[in-house]
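re: ur question from the group chat, yeah i did fold both. here u go
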Amino acid sequence: MDTFLFWFDAFLRVLRITLFVAVVIIAVICVVDWLVRTRRINAFNPIARRMRSTIDPLMAPVERRVVRAGGLPASAPWWTLVFAVIGTIVVIWLLGFIRSQVGAISMSSRAGAGGMVVLLIRWTFSILTLALIVRVISSWFGMSPYSPWIRWSFQLTEWFMAPLRRVVPTIGVIDITPIVAYILLRVLEGALFAVLGMG
């Protein structure tokens, strides 16, 4: 397991550098494409012709979405850059998360059955907390609880949110039930570790 983690860490270092360089290149391309689209670079310039023939077809899906949302086609390069940056951050975060979980499994397995119980309890409460956060953020954006992207968070949290909602008062129009639920999850996790004599 240690050998795997060593090589995974090396892979992550190389990937971070590669993705950073890729985002810088994409940023330069997006700036040039924006200059071409806004006619700051002459349309008959060789650079403009090259951008229209090679880069614009690649940005066509982003441009269609921007136009459908009421935006200007000239903003497609900026949205492409935003997607590239967010995608890079998500990939690096996911791989870092996987690495931390593999490390946690390795450490827990060395601690025997007790270590695995601690790991399972932590995972359970982490998943419930993540579901709660997704549920709250989706409500800020008015997303449907029946959306396939969001439904899982409601299914995982409704069993403890519904009883809390009946007890916890609202403050004006603000529902503080998610805050109370988050605090109770943390307290319950700590109490469970205290009862089991783990931590």
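okk and heres the other one u asked abt
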Amino acid sequence: MSQPSLTRHDVATPRGVVLMLHGGRQQSLEAVDGRNLSRRRSRAMQRAIAPGFAAAGLSTWLLSYRVRGWNGGVGPVADARWALAEVRREVGEVPVCLLGHSMGARTAVHVADDRHVVGVVGLAPWWPADEPVAALRGRRLVGAHGRRDKITSYRQSARFVARAADVAASAELRDMGQVGHYMLRRIRSWNHVASSATLAILR
């Protein structure tokens, strides 16, 4: 099995880190490589928004999981915790915002209990209505979901955010309108909500 890896856009002395988590599939042991479309979409977003984060003193790291699948959560959650440990080892004690798409957003809400995580931004998130919210205690949560998403559910995300509001410092879901899952329409709008929500959490 391949190892997780990081694609980094670093600043000299970061005051915080944006850790991006790309999407995946419900079940798959296929290795993530440069051809993986979910990773490529997040990499394109990283290229677009990292300069703005750098101007604000933030480094932007994109995690590539070992395998594509959620597979009960064991793999992507372990990989995300590895990446958070790498932040501590390489950068030190700085705040982290998790920016995840689809399965990446689901992974994010499982590892948000890391002591350096201050918030989660989920784009077209895969947040089942009954997904645990305990890891979000005291964190800030922002979701952004389109109404035409046929892969993950806007309504389930809304129910998840409503439950998370009981434990999170703040929780909101932004309606992206009549767009689907893969962020291929209204790209600038997706990039804007990713940047603005993340910067607000790490201000």
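fwiw on the second one: DSSP finds five helices and seven strands in the chain. The helical segments are 37-55, 74-90, 103-111, 154-164, 187-201. idk if thats what u expected
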